[in-house]
Amino acid sequence: xxxxxxxxxxxxxxxxxxxxxxxxxxxxxxxxxxxxxxxxxxxxxxxxxxxxxxxxxxxxxxxxxxxxxxxxxxxxxxxxxxxxxxxxxxxxxxxxxxxxxxxxxxxxxxxxx
Length: 113
What we know:
Structural class: alpha+beta
Helix content: 25-40%
Number of strands: 4
């Protein structure tokens, strides 16, 4: 395996670890399946086709909560931003894409009282 492939595999492994053990900050949140939340056209279509069960363009929390596996390898995806909404994700196949980074930091939430 080339060095670049090993590095990307390492990044993905660390990212999955972070996703699995991060605080569940997205639980209960419904999000639009749009370019803001899922900027990559291919990944957005995958999410819509596979997880938007009522085809309303919204990823409801119960739809996202049921997802434990995402398989998007070899699809020419440049970003999987939005994967953070799948809080019960245990398996992510995303090799052989155009990913240059994978951000699994927690999103800041508002401090509304």
